[in-house]
Amino acid sequence: MRREHLLPTPEDTHALGRSLAEVLAPGDLVVLVGPLGAGKTALTQGIGAGLGVREPVTSPTFVISRVHRGGRVPLVHVDAYRLGGVADVDDLDLDASTDESVTVVEWGQGLVERLADEHLEVRLDRRDDDVRTAVLLPHGPGWEARLPPA
Hints:
By secondary structure, the chain is an alpha/beta fold. It has one domain: Rossmann fold. The protein has helices spanning 10-21, 40-51, 86-92, 141-146; strands at 3-7, 29-33, 65-68, 75-79, 102-106, 119-126, 132-139. Strands 1-7-6-2-5-4-3 form a seven-stranded mixed beta sheet. Belongs to the TsaE family. It comes from uncultured Blastococcus sp. Keywords: ATP-binding, Cytoplasm, Magnesium, Metal-binding, Nucleotide-binding, tRNA processing. This is tRNA threonylcarbamoyladenosine biosynthesis protein TsaE.
């Protein structure tokens, strides 16, 4: 079941992230899909805030992966844009931390889904009027019951 959200402002994107954080648990994988400027990092910032991360959550484009501790669950934030394939994902050794962390991967579609038995895909887009949209696509039976309402 897909759930769609309209996100007219960056604050709305953060609020959706905070709402998702309420249902996230260690071992969860969230895969963010969408073009540049669609709100992937803003959504992750909301997730970080909802998890209680105190440090700034910024795009890990150049470092590929950042771990944010200090919240109720560690947040692993990955930008897979520059990764060439599954072998590059393996080199990051993400599966070593997925069981005890929430892992959010920007640009990870087709690369990271095997890191968890189930995952949540969030498709973000920016319309011509600059309003963002988010479609939540659960992959696995556990996500259906946990998703926040649209």
